[in-house]
Design goal:
The protein is α/β, with parallel strands linked by helices. It has 8 helices and 10 strands.
């Protein structure tokens, strides 16, 4: 399907769910100019300690792999995608990018034309660190990625900056994606220094860690910013993965072009190759000698040169 629709995938943070996006979803649905938008809230398991012995909270890696399948299935019909994330959701999206590039799947990321990070703890969050450990548990797989100076988060950030933000071409290991980063001006959970980190396209929006999403009117600056970004999302890329064979098969099967001379030629030509012991595969001569019959059409006789004295006689 080829159209100009845009799928906007929304990824919430820790201790949250897809309902957090409802105010923004309503404003998008009520805007006539955004009729080409379809919002797709992605949800994953998160929360406080679970008491069911058969259940656990997924790690950020696991959630990133769940997002991968969501983009393939629920968002599979869209040629253009824009990811909007809040808090830990930004870490999930970045981990998805890094894991895909590590797997050599850069071309599959080309549909993602823009990523928006709202209040994402790119450098961790120190606020209530001890309380988080007590409430969530020191083994909570998601809380670990919120700690300052987390090695895996740092490695992911390095990959995203090198192979996404600063990428110059689409390949198996690189994919240029426009990433916009916003901090909450009153956010004490994720301070601006952590949210903006080292991203070049960073700014600040009104609100704290929670209210940055509570857009009740169309004049709310988070909505007006997202509206502008949705309306200006780059078109779908036309790049595609290169063929595994640089020379088309039909070209390999074609006989070599013989250069005709002055007249028709017919005869037999012997081609010899001594590389691999006389093996012959398909139209390619690996070794040994073969005989090829050829006929080249006669070229038309050249026009006689004009007599330089012809016009002067008589």
């Amino acid at each position: 399907m080829s159209d100009d629709r845009l799928g906007v995938v929304m990824v919430h943070g820790i201790l949250s769910d897809a309902k957090v996006w409802q105010p923004l979803q309503k404003l998008i649905a009520d805007d006539a100019e955004l009729g080409f938008i379809r919002t797709l809230p992605f949800e994953y398991a998160t929360g406080l300690k679970r008491f069911h012995p058969m259940r656990i909270f997924p790690s950020i890696d696991t959630v990133a792999d769940s997002l991968k399948e969501y983009l393939l299935t629920e968002a599979g019909e869209f040629e253009r995608l824009m990811l909007v994330t809040h808090s830990q959701g930004g870490l999930v999206a970045q981990r998805h990018l890094a894991r895909m590039l590590s797997d050599g799947s850069g071309y599959e990321l080309a549909r993602i034309r823009r990523l928006v990070l709202l209040a994402c703890p790119n450098n961790g969050s120190e606020l209530l660190l001890s309380l988080r450990r007590n409430v969530l548990g020191s083994r909570h797989p998601q809380e670990k990625d919120l700690r300052p100076i987390n090695d895996q988060v740092t490695a992911t950030l390095r990959t995203v900056l090198r192979d996404v933000v600063h990428a110059t071409r689409l390949s198996e290991r690189t994919c240029p994606i426009d990433i916009k980063v916003y901090a909450g001006e009153s956010d004490a959970v994720v301070p601006a220094a952590s949210a903006q980190s080292v991203f070049p396209n960073s700014a600040v929006l009104p609100g704290d860690h929670s209210s940055i999403l509570k857009a009740k009117t169309a004049s709310h600056r988070t909505f007006t910013t997202l509206r502008r970004l949705m309306l200006t999302t780059p078109a779908a890329t036309t790049s595609s993965a290169p063929s595994t064979c640089e020379t088309p098969a039909e070209d390999l099967a074609s006989p070599p072009t013989l250069q005709p001379r002055d007249a028709q030629q017919t005869g037999t030509r012997t081609i010899t190759n001594h590389v691999s012991g006389g093996a012959f595969h398909s139209p390619l001569i690996q070794a040994g000698s073969v005989h090829a019959s050829f006929t080249t059409p006669a070229l038309p006789a050249p026009c006689p040169a004009p007599d330089p004295d012809g016009d002067a006689k008589g």
